[in-house]
Amino acid sequence: MPALATAPPVADQPVTVHVCVTCRLAADAPDGPRAGARLAAALQEAAGPGVTVVPVECLSVCKRPVTVGFSAPGRWTYVYGDFPPESADLILAAAAQYAAAPQGLIPWRERPEALKRGVVARIPPPADPEAA
Ligand code: FES
User: What local confidence, expressed as pLDDT, does residue 129 receive?
Assistant: First the structure.
């Protein structure tokens, strides 16, 4: 079996949490902020220095709001769905686990249920051109 990733994690790089601000719940008021925008605002307010929260418009997982992604240099990128807008604390705790896990691979038994249920995709880090 080939190695899981080609690039080592880069130490001291913050985790980027992308949040879809266009995700909407059926219960969202038509003229109010969408669930994704509310979650992004809560994350931006609560995030510490190790996490960069980046609002984005659509991660193509529109049927599973709210969608977020975790990424960092040298680490696998994960995309998750189904986060309610009140999930900021859970997401930031998971981002800390992601930052501490080798290559961002949080062991399955250590993942919060929301991550186990909500995982949509995982994408390996880009190939290291220096290693070719
Ligand atoms: S609207 Fe949120 S993923 Fe498309």
Answer: 75
- Ligand 1 contact via 39 beta carbon (within 6 Å): no
Containing structural domain, residue 38: 13-67+84-102
Residue 10: predicted pLDDT: 54
- The alpha carbons of the chain give a radius of gyration, in whole angstroms, of 15
Of 34, 60, 79, the one to substitute when testing ligand 1's pocket (max ligand atoms within 8 A of C-beta) is: 60
For residue 117, being part of any structural domain is answered with no
Position 94 in a domain: yes
pTM higher than the cut 0.85? yes
Number of domains present in the structure of the chain: 1
Does residue 61 line the site of ligand 1, with CB under 6 A? yes
Give, in degrees to the nearest 5, the angle at Cα 6 between 130 and 68.
120
Residue of 62, 63, 66 with the most ligand 1 atoms within 8 Å of its CB, for mutation: 62
| pLDDT tens for each residue of 52-105 | 999 999 999 999 999 999 999 989 999 999 999 999 999 999 999 999 998 999
Q: Which atom of ligand 1 is nearest to the CA of 36?
A: 2
